[in-house]
Amino acid sequence: MSQSNKKLTALTFDDGPDVTLTALVLDKLDKFQVPATFMVVGQRVNDSTSDIIKRIVNSGHEIGNHSWDYSSMGDMSAEEIKESVGKTTAVIEKYSGTSPKFFRAPNLVYSQTLYDNVDLIFAHGITANDWIQTTTAQQRADAIINQVKDGAIILLHDVQPLPHPTPEALDIIIPTLQEQGYEFVTLTELFIRKGVDLNTAKGKVYSFVG
């Protein structure tokens, strides 16, 4: 199967960074040698998490913007939106040395004002209810595997209250999808390899690309 014909999917993780919890996800990504994209909350990006942010970048992963404090933004004014997203982008640039290309709205709540005032690509995704603490690793894995198709953005969480078996679910998700012919890529690579121009991809929400 040529690279251009290979099925692609992008793992994304919300709500970090956290020194302990994000590291558990990074350990699994290291184990399988696959890249991912971490959609970070700005107020968590600081001196105390700088080492884990460096690890994310040095491991070949991407960092996206998940707002400043995870407040739903559906009713926010343009000024509030710009402040939240702008402050988050600034700390991402400060601590990671990279600029985010993608934005995920807190609680997946959108508005026209949000579209009009965020100059990033809106990445949604297929979910696994991994914010519900009673779901098991197998249930989380099954939810993703049953929904995935070529070009899918997978939406999981690196940070949720314990017990949080999403890292364990990756032990099922990654090899199962690889056996089905999927290659894991960052969000940027997913868009590029699916032929979607990053400069013209704004103004809509993507769960699948291509």
UniProtKB/TrEMBL annotation:
One of its GO terms (biological process) is xylan catabolic process. It holds the Pfam family Polysacc_deac_1. GO terms for molecular function: hydrolase activity, acting on carbon-nitrogen (but not peptide) bonds; hydrolase activity, acting on glycosyl bonds. Gene3D superfamilies: Glycoside hydrolase/deacetylase. Transmembrane segments: none annotated. Residues 7-185 form the NodB homology domain. InterPro entries: Glyco_hydro/deAcase_b/a-brl, NODB_dom, Polysacc_deacetylase_ArnD. Keywords: Carbohydrate metabolism, Glycosidase, Hydrolase, Polysaccharide degradation, Xylan degradation. This is Putative xylanase/chitin deacetylase. It comes from Acetivibrio clariflavus (strain DSM 19732 / NBRC 101661 / EBR45) (Clostridium clariflavum).
